[in-house]
Amino acid sequence: MSTCSVHPLPYRANPAEYFTAIRHAPGAVLLDSGRPAAERGRYDLLSAWPEATLAVWPDESGSDFLQRLRENLALLGDAALPAPYELPFAGGLIGYLSYDFGRHLEQLPHLAVDDLRLPDARFGLYAWALISDHQAQTSQLVFHPKLVESERQRLITLFSHPTPSAPATFKLHGKMAPDLTAQAYQQALARIQDYIQAGDCYQVNFAQRFRAPCIGDPWVAYCALREACPTPFSGFQSLPDDGAVLSLSPERFVKISQRQVETRPIKGTRPRGATATEDAANAAELLASPKDRAENLMIVDLLRNDLGRTCRIGSVKVPELFSLESYPNVHHLVSSVTGELADDKDALDLIAGSFPGGSITGAPKIRAMQIIDELEPTRRGLYCGSLLYLDVRGEMDSSIAIRSLLVKDGQVCCWGGGGIVADSEWQAEYQESMTKVRVLLQTLEGL
User: Does residue 225 contact residue 172 with C-beta atoms inside 8 Å?
Assistant: First the structure.
């Protein structure tokens, strides 16, 4: 098997310093662990100038698109990393699946309006990446064997002598306003609770969208947001026509390393307190809440089932249940479900069997997705989809794109939501959907 070459660079804790060099390059993408402030993530990954760009066609089945991804990975070809490097990416795919990619995997109604017109999936096939390892405190360029020597030298020069970027700005024209009135939100929740009483479902994730017209460079917005709300599954992906995906997600979807699978669903939220005492009380209340534990357990069961479709029989386990994770704006209740890929399955089979993530749909999943389509007036697009990489070795990590924004066609959109169950109170849920995104909206309004 061919081996990648690795070129060391000076370590940078903040990937923005390197990303600036490729900010305007085609296919520029950054998967960002939120350093130096966020603590959980180990790697940052950035790249640009993909060998190919792959978007799902409107009428293409999910399995056909995933097969195209497989074929493109095979064209790039297997490669290993030289010892002693432990890096997550040796060349491969980086991109997003929107929530609505689920329509290519399951039969769903078409009631919600697709007003954002975002392709349901878009990936680049990358033969190089700049990877920072925050544990080892190293930054390095990784070149797949397919990348020609002249291109390697160009990239080494580019990142060794970063040029200062031209000053840029980002501004909203007006406040971020919700699409739904409080009354419409209340009516939607009443409808969900009717469905729960009727036995259709146990839990439905319901979201509302906020938006404002905007002008300027979305990268400026992203840099401000990552400072205000550092999270371990952040990311920035440039889109055609000056659009971009901006994600400040705290949630992992699925990770595969050496065929070991892990998913970390978040279900259960409390705001951070204004004082240390109030903050500790909010965290304690979340950990002790029967409602939040029940919601979390429902999703853990759903994910055990999803992973069971592609994992070796008997390998699916729950090593962590109801852990507390705290972020600048909220406390979360998080669990972990693990497994081992079956011999005849790969990472894309796992995606096909478990996308979109159960923590942002509800249970049972397909019925919850049908109810979401009926009650949310517009399609979610990127929100609750996934940013991910999958390399030629089969290594993969992916987020659930909550706390995420889309800049496209002169407006910025952001979504907030939560899991609705039989005893949910609409005012509390309405408030929680605001709490989750308040720091994002206030940061944009302050630019």
Answer: no
